[in-house]
Write a structure and sequence with these properties.
Helix content is 30%, strand content 30%. It has 197 residues and is of the alpha/beta class. Strand 6, helix 4 and strand 7 form a beta-alpha-beta unit. The chain is built from seven helices and ten strands. It is elongated, with a radius of gyration of 18 Å. Strands 7-6-8-5-9 form a five-stranded mixed beta sheet. The protein starts with a strand and ends in a 5-residue tail after the last helix.
């Protein structure tokens, strides 16, 4: 079983592992964003494997590899009173003292590269409304607006502390995330699947 080593995801992995008490599988740690790829590759080589990650990271992978056979076996609702929305939320952020509709039609935007495909899908919809985007992909983009690198940011908001420190506001919620246990379309996934996707 592939479990995330990311701190926030690991808490929920421990909850999901309670389902395996008495029959604990071998645990292999990996970054949450790598788990969908690893599950698919290891399953493709004949290994019976399941993984645990965030729904946002799974959707990012599925958008990148649209013929993916990965399915959700179980979804665990993310419930954290310390999180601004109770869970991680991918957001469009901008300066607190401005409004999106007051920005020019050509916008510089920093995107956390972990969410390249989710942001592309979202920005494509915005482009249909007449906007154009100069996209900059970075790791940890929130503070870059403050530094003048971009007009807007797409990143995960959890507690909201970084956003507030950078004098940013939420302009739009793009996607909420929960915790998911995933597998491929084979015996292991089918017997446990609850139809969530």
């Amino acid at each position: 079983m592939l479990v995330p080593k990311n701190r926030s995801l690991r808490t929920y992995a421990d909850i999901a592992l309670e389902d395996f008490k008495g029959n604990a599988p071998e645990l292999i740690e990996a970054r949450g964003e790598d788990i969908p790829l690893l599950v698919e590759k290891l399953s493709g080589s004949g290994k019976e494997i399941i993984g645990m990650t965030g729904y946002d990271l799974l959707r990012e992978y599925q958008l990148k590899k649209y013929k993916s056979k990965i399915k959700i076996i179980k979804k665990i609702a993310w419930q954290d009173p310390k999180a601004m929305f109770g869970k991680p939320v991918l957001c469009l952020l901008g300066p607190k003292d401005k409004k999106f509709e007051n920005l020019p039609k050509k916008i510089r935007i920093c995107v956390n590269k972990k969410y390249r495909n989710l942001s592309k899908k979202y920005l494509n919809l915005m482009e249909e409304k007449g906007y154009s985007f100069d996209r900059i992909y970075v790791s940890g983009s929130t503070e870059n607006v403050y530094r003048g690198l971009s007009d807007l940011v797409i990143d995960i908001v959890y507690t909201g502390a970084s956003m507030k420190n950078a004098n940013l506001a939420i302009y739009d919620k793009i996607m909420e995330s929960d915790f998911v246990v995933i597998g491929v379309e084979n015996g292991k996934s089918k017997e446990s699947s609850n139809g969530d996707e």
